[in-house]
Q: What sequence folds into this?
């Protein structure tokens, strides 16, 4: 992975479309300042805020299949144009690759 890449550990994933304007969520989250970032990430500790975020995400239109299809398309284009995906990889990103990365970093 490059310096600007991210690895995310999760029990599940769900992409939604359209997304949410974080500033608009502050009142929905009981005043929690989700619109203020520290270095492009936000760690949410409050259980009630997490519960509300999950409710919102799980009730929104699921765009996961569309997202994965687009990623597959970009991976194929990258392979055709540059003969590689993700630096020196010839295969697309997968759960197995994510596990390899996390093991290398001592996260699992």
A:
């Amino acid at each position: 992975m490059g310096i600007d890449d991210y690895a995310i550990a999760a029990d599940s994933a769900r992409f939604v479309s359209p997304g949410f304007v974080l500033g608009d969520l502050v009142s929905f989250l009981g005043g929690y300042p989700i619109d203020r970032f520290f270095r492009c990430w936000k760690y949410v500790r409050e259980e009630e805020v997490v519960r509300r975020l999950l409710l919102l995400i799980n009730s929104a239109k699921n765009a996961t299949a569309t997202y994965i299809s687009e990623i597959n398309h970009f991976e194929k284009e990258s392979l055709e144009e540059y003969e590689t995906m993700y630096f020196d990889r010839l295969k697309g990103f997968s759960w197995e690759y994510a596990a390899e990365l996390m093991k290398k970093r001592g996260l699992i």
Observations:
- Residues 16 and 57 are 7 Å apart (CA to CA).
- Residues 64-108 form one domain.
